[in-house]
Design a protein that fits this description.
Blueprint: E1 10-14, H1 20-30, H2 39-48, E2 54-58, E3 61-71, H3 73-76, H4 82-86, E4 100-108, H5 117-131, E5 136-141, H6 156-165, H7 171-178, E6 182-187, E7 201-207, E8 227-236, H8 243-259, E9 264-266, H9 285-293, H10 296-309, E10 313-315, E11 319-322, E12 328-335, E13 341-345, H11 351-357, E14 359-360, E15 375-377, H12 386-394, E16 399-404, H13 409-426, E17 429-436, E18 453-455, E19 467-470, E20 477-484, H14 485-494
Parallel strand pairs: 4-5, 8-9, 8-17, 9-10, 12-14, 15-16, 16-17
Antiparallel strand pairs: 1-2, 2-3, 3-4, 5-7, 6-7, 8-20, 10-12, 11-12, 12-13, 17-18, 18-19
Length: 536
């Protein structure tokens, strides 16, 4: 008789991007008294260091999650706060050359207590540290009975001493001691929202016994190759007879970019205004935008079909779109070659867009997963607001695509200079694509000025002027260049300047307002850590 194998009910594995909704739901169950993580923060944690994020899955349900990152000992062992060391909760301070693993999140569903999931997640971290031959693991651990016993002690250190001596009981500290962690001090003001711990944490470490503590390893990031080929289409505005002719014009450039084996092709902002050229009479600005919005389903379907057929990821410029709440928004459709379609609305309409077309700004901006890693989209004017690019990069984006539509050199240079700044300050690639030419009787296509380009940070691995490639001004063309994403990783870890790593998180960070423009204001509070035996 052949014994039938059964599937394991419980698995601890590396977190995947597809787990993000379940992790967000888990955090909401655990952190009932706090505004929990949003999808963008979890996306950043996983994108910035996927090897350090684990989930516990029981009967196909995510019931545990932990996040960690590599960081240098001079940071991991020094006084810090949770927001400071985690880069605002997204793990952006991950350093691939760091010799310590820092744990900054561990939560377990209250429904599965008694299954030792906290211990299993700790073991996954320890295994990772041993495999990488890291010096050890550090984190800030909760002390949930501190407030209850505060009158019996003379401070956090005295409380810790009494717990170690057995005079007081703290389930989290005892759990961590039992798992081989040792306290090296206390972290005041670590997490102010943790009222039970009075905002204080125990600075816990585990030292890897397989590493020489007197001479810890020094890690260097190899100058690897992770090539991505990018095409940016500087498109000529032209009259078309119908929708199919417009699609044929777009298909031509997609086909050429595909022949060159490009991974991405970017089209300009509002390039679909060409669809107004075959209207029988000139439309008012409001009528024109409403008419364009009628083409939205056909545009989405046509671009998605092309992306799969030509095996290329298409960033479809932008297109005025009627949303479910009745607003007109300027939306970029990102059609991936696996058939997925993502949307990114323009957050900041220009004064002219608001006045003439009544275009409303969007509420969300997030990194988009692709087969070449996370990317971001900033539509024209959005590139002039640095906090948006910073959010995308915090979520893991390494390439930011900026479709634009400018009528003058001054307008173009505003976008160009800001995009170059975004590439430098975020140590990422920025790709620009604009319209050229004009369309009589079509508002906002009277004249156009563009010089599309692919911009880089300014450091030794990159082009000497920070320009990987650029088109000739005001000429329809396709500009193609290879970029090496591994150069970004090297520059962030070992570059001449390290803009991302050197941010002063002890002074400032960006808090995204989760209410959007239609919700009610709720003050943001940080997550407090697991309510089981966790912390860190």
């Amino acid at each position: 008789m052949v014994k039938q194998k059964t599937k394991s009910r419980l698995e601890v594995r590396q977190a995947r991007r597809t787990d993000i909704p379940a992790i967000v739901a888990l955090a909401a169950r655990v952190y009932k008294d706090f505004i929990p993580y949003d999808a963008g923060e979890i996306r950043g944690q996983i994108n910035n260091y996927p090897e350090g994020c684990f989930v516990a899955e029981l009967d196909d349900e995510i019931v545990g999650y932990c996040a960690s990152m590599r960081i240098g000992g001079q940071i991991a062992l020094a006084p810090h706060t949770w927001r400071e060391i985690t880069g605002g909760g997204t793990g952006t301070r991950h350093d691939p050359t760091g010799d310590w693993l820092y744990g900054y999140e561990l939560c377990v569903s209250p429904d599965v207590r008694g299954t030792r999931l906290g211990r299993r997640l700790y073991e996954a971290r320890r295994k990772l540290a041993e495999e990488l031959e890291l010096t050890g693991i550090a984190f800030g651990g909760r002390m949930p009975n501190y407030r209850r016993h505060r009158k019996k002690v003379e401070g956090a250190q005295d409380y810790l001493d009494k717990v170690i001596a057995g005079d007081l009981h703290d389930p989290v500290i005892r759990f961590q001691l039992a798992n081989g962690y040792e306290p090296i001090g206390v972290l005041p003001r670590y997490l102010r929202e943790d009222e039970a711990s009075m905002g204080t944490a125990i600075h816990m470490v585990w030292r890897n016994p397989y590493v020489d503590r007197e001479q810890p390893k020094k890690f260097r990031l190899p100058r690897g190759v992770e090539n991505v080929r990018i095409a940016t289409c500087q498109l000529q505005a032209r009259s078309v007879e119908n929708f199919d002719e417009f699609v044929d014009n777009v298909r031509y450039f997609v086909d050429v970019a595909s022949d060159y084996e490009a991974d991405f092709i970017l089209f300009p902002e509002l390039f679909t205004l060409m669809l107004l050229s075959f209207e029988e009479e000139e439309l008012s600005p409001q009528q024109a935008i409403e008419r364009l919005s009628e083409y939205t389903p056909r545009i989405r379907d046509a671009f998605s079909e092309m992306a799969m057929k030509y095996n290329i990821n298409i960033i479809g410029g932008s297109h005025p779109t009627l949303t479910e709440d009745g607003d007109i928004q300027n939306v970029a459709f990102v059609c991936l070659r696996d058939g997925a379609v993502h949307e990114q609305e323009k957050i900041h309409p220009t004064p002219n867009e608001r006045y003439w077309w009544n275009i409303k700004g969007g509420d969300d901006i997030d990194a988009i997963p692709t087969d070449c890693g996370p990317i971001g989209v900033l539509i024209c004017y959005d590139s002039e607001f640095p906090e948006l690019a910073r959010r995308l990069v915090d979520e893991g984006a390494r390439i930011i695509f900026t479709p634009f539509c400018t009528d003058s050199r001054q307008g173009y240079l505003r976008v160009r200079y800001c995009c170059q700044a975004r590439a430098i300050e975020n140590q990422c690639f920025v790709v620009m694509s604009g319209n050229v030419g004009n369309l009589p009787n079509v508002h906002n296509m009277d004249i156009q000025y563009a010089q599309s380009c692919i911009l880089t940070p300014c450091d030794f691995p990159f082009a000497r002027d920070g320009i990987a490639a650029e088109a000739t001004e005001n000429v329809e063309t396709l500009t193609i260049s290879d970029v090496n994403l591994a150069d970004l990783s090297w520059a962030r870890a070992e570059g001449t300047v390290r803009n991302l790593a050197d941010r002063r998180f002890d002074l400032y960070d960006i808090n995204w307002d989760k209410r959007g423009s239609h919700g009610k204001s709720t003050p943001r509070k940080d997550p407090i850590g697991t309510k089981t035996a966790g912390g860190g």
